Amino acid sequence: MKIVGIAGSIVGSKTKIAMEYTMDKVREKYPNAEVELIDLGAYNIVYSDGRNYIDYDGDTKYVTETIMAADALIIGTPTFQASIPGTLKNIFDLLPENAFREKVVSMVVTAGTSKHFLMVEQQLKPILAYMKATIVPTYVFVEEQDFHRKEIVNDDVHFRINRLVDDTVQMMDVVNMIREAKEAAYDF
């Protein structure tokens, strides 16, 4: 079981802090899982130009191949201008249309206020559905007030992240059971 987290911005610290905490919880609760966090700020990723993801090289190739090899993704994104950041959208553009087929995807979203929760519903979830993701229905929304001195201080956020981690792994188990049942139905 390979779980990849994505800190979907190259600026700011809150999304990365939330994703580091989330991935630490994955490692703690599921020590047998292969876990990796991709912080987009740490990579030099080119803009999508329509090529197949395997035709890129360098950091772009590494990031896209790591995402494609994952069984589950936990996408962390800030809310910029009531939307996802361009760096995250570029990742989606680099991948094939069916990139998330049979992959479970959950989300951790940071924003200045609760007024931006619709960004997930109206922008991020439709993109993930188009790319054939099995989407964990609930997500964790972390506001500015939930951070203090570069730490998440809201106990409810900690609880929701723990729940998101469990929901992601449980959904992954269900997706695997469905895939195995479909494969077993063939006689060859």
UniProtKB/TrEMBL annotation:
Pfam families: FMN_red
InterPro entries per record: Flavoprotein-like_sf, FMN_Rdtase-like_dom, NAD(P)H-dep_FMN_reductase
Keywords: Flavoprotein, FMN, Oxidoreductase
Gene Ontology MF terms: oxidoreductase activity
Gene3D superfamilies: 3.40.50.360
PANTHER family: FMN REDUCTASE (NADPH)
Identification of the protein by name: NAD(P)H-dependent oxidoreductase
Native source species: Psychrobacillus vulpis
